[in-house]
């Protein structure tokens, strides 16, 4: 069921409840007024006939004649007159006698000293004391309010019809108003259907940003911005990966084709295998870099975090780098000392941090003529600072803002081979650990990467 239909139905239900309550109140108030008014009419009719009997000295025959003539056209009131000793003085229809007065009833009316009203089935009865010539008489008047009940019945029918008409009108009005109010939603839905992977540049425009639908359109546009950016990043990523994979694969196939072209000497085959191994190593390194970049791109909730010591992770990274390239020189400097071991402990993922530190050490060594990296670890209040320095060619100012983008290689890329994954991976890992990373570079002199992690409070002891 659509929202506008639900709104119309709920609007109709509310209207039905209100109309039912309103109709019930009108009915019960009207029924009470009919009853009260008819009791008053019975009293007045009883007083009139009593006056006609006592004051006008009308004979019983005349009064019976009036009663019989009227009863043919309307529900005439039946009057009975008794004295206080239960002697019947006059009765409009003694043969019918609807009330069937008893001494107990007469005595109850006398003792009540006020009008009494009650029902006999559908007939209403009023009993009261009438005073004449210092004497008391008991008058009873009874009748069926046919006219009043007929009016009440017509009122009931009219209220039911009016209630149903109001419900139908409220549903139609509610549907119209809901459709009109939700029209922007339909427009947004139609426009969203037009947006596909091939035209993610389209946006929802011309909406008032200060109402709910404008806020919804703004949220959709922000989501589309993120999706478009993700698609562009994905296209660029696939394009770059394809390019990076194609180069070593093409070189590897070329070496194999060269070896198969004709018979070679053992030395030629050895050289071909060495070149093939080099290309395969480049492929493995690229694939490992892509896997590490993918791991660093996981949601933080999916990355396992434990307490680790930064200095131990740095030492492990140094060990891995030297194992892969023994000619590298990595100098680790730890200062100042702390009064307890907790100063160098953070919550982190050991594998990712070791991978990031290894990349920075390798970059230092690759871009330094003496293949050297200097790593300094220091602790401050609530923070751990690590710097990775080289004495290499440096980074140009125009490359600084793009240096952490995946597959980006600066103008110094001719100096050494690479694929542009390492620093992008480092940036993601540091951000996952809520750290900050910065660069300070002087062309031809030194390049230093600064990393800062927040940690628990500790006291620093100077050497």
From TrEMBL:
Domain Histidine kinase: 240-457
Keyword annotations: Kinase, Membrane, Phosphoprotein, Transferase, Transmembrane, Transmembrane helix, Two-component regulatory system
One Pfam short name: HisKA
Spans traversing the lipid bilayer: 7-29, 155-178
EC numbers on record: 2.7.13.3
Chief place of localization: membrane
Keyword Transcription regulation among UniProt keywords: no
Domain HAMP: 179-232
Enzyme class of the recorded protein, top EC level: transferase
Family annotation (InterPro entries): HAMP_dom, HATPase_C_sf, HATPase_dom, His_kinase_dom, HisK_dim/P_dom, HisK_dim/P_sf, Sig_transdc_His_kin-like_C, TCS_sensor_his_kinase
Molecular-function GO terms, alphabetical: phosphorelay sensor kinase activity
Gene Ontology CC: plasma membrane
Cellular compartments annotated: Membrane
Reactions accelerated catalytically: ATP + protein L-histidine = ADP + protein N-phospho-L-histidine
Keyword Nucleotidyltransferase: no
Name the UniProt record assigns to this protein: histidine kinase
UniProt source species: Dysgonomonas macrotermitis
């Amino acid at each position: 069921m659509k929202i506008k239909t639900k709104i119309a139905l709920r609007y109709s239900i509310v209207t039905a409840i209100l109309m039912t309550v309103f109709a019930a109140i009108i009915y019960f108030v009207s029924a009470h007024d009919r009853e009260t008014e008819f009791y008053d009419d019975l009293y007045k009719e009883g007083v009139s006939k009593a006056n006609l009997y006592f004051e006008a000295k009308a004979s019983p025959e005349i009064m019976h004649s009036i009663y019989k003539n009227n009863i043919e056209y309307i529900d005439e009131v039946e009057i009975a007159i008794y004295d206080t000793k239960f002697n019947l003085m006059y009765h409009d229809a003694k043969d019918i006698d609807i009330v069937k007065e008893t001494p107990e009833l007469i005595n109850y009316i006398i003792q009540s000293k006020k009008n009494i009203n009650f029902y006999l089935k559908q007939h209403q009865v009023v009993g009261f004391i009438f005073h004449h010539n210092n004497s008391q008489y008991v008058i009873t008047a009874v009748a069926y309010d046919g006219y009043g009940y007929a009016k009440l019945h017509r009122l009931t029918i009219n209220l039911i019809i009016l209630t149903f008409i109001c419900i139908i009108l409220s549903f139609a009005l509610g549907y119209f108003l809901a459709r009109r109010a939700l029209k922007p939603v339909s427009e947004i839905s139609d426009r969203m259907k037009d947006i596909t992977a091939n035209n993610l540049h389209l946006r929802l425009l011309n909406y008032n940003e200060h109402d709910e639908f404008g806020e919804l359109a703004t949220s959709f546009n922000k989501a589309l911005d993120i999706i478009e950016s993700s698609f562009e990043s994905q296209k660029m990523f696939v394009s770059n990966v394809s390019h990076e994979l194609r180069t070593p694969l093409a070189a590897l196939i070329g070496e194999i084709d060269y070896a198969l072209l004709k018979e070679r000497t053992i030395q030629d085959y050895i050289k071909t295998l060495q070149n093939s191994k080099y290309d395969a190593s480049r492929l493995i390194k690229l694939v490992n870099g892509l896997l590490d970049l993918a791991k660093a791109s996981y949601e933080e909730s999916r990355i396992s975090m434990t307490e680790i010591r930064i200095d131990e992770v740095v030492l492990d990274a140094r060990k891995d780098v030297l194992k892969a390239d023994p000619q590298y020189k990595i100098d680790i400097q730890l200062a100042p000392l702390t009064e307890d071991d907790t100063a160098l402990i953070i919550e982190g993922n050991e594998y990712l941090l070791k991978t990031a530190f290894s990349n920075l050490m390798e970059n230092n060594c690759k871009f330094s003529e003496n293949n050297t990296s200097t790593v300094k670890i220091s602790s401050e209040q609530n923070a751990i600072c690590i710097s990775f320095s080289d004495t290499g060619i440096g980074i140009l100012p125009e490359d600084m803002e793009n240096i952490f983008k995946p597959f980006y290689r600066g103008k110094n890329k001719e100096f050494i081979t690479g694929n542009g994954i390492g620093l992008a991976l480092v940036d993601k890992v540091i951000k996952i650990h809520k750290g900050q990373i910065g660069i300070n570079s002087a062309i031809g002199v030194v390049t230093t990467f600064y990393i800062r992690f927040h940690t628990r409070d500790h006291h620093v002891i100077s050497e």
